[in-house]
Amino acid sequence: MALTLIKEDGTARTDANSYATAADGDAYHDGHLYASTWTSATTARKEAALVMATRLVDSQCQFNGYRVSDQQALQWPRWKCPDPDGGLALIPLRLLPRGMGFVDYNTVPKAVRDATCEMARELLVQDRTAAPPGQGIDTVHTGHTDAAGTGTGASDNSTTKYSKADTRPIISQVAQAMLVKYGSLTDGGGGPVRLFRV
Question: Where are the domains of the chain?
Answer without folding.
Answer: 1-132+171-198, 134-167
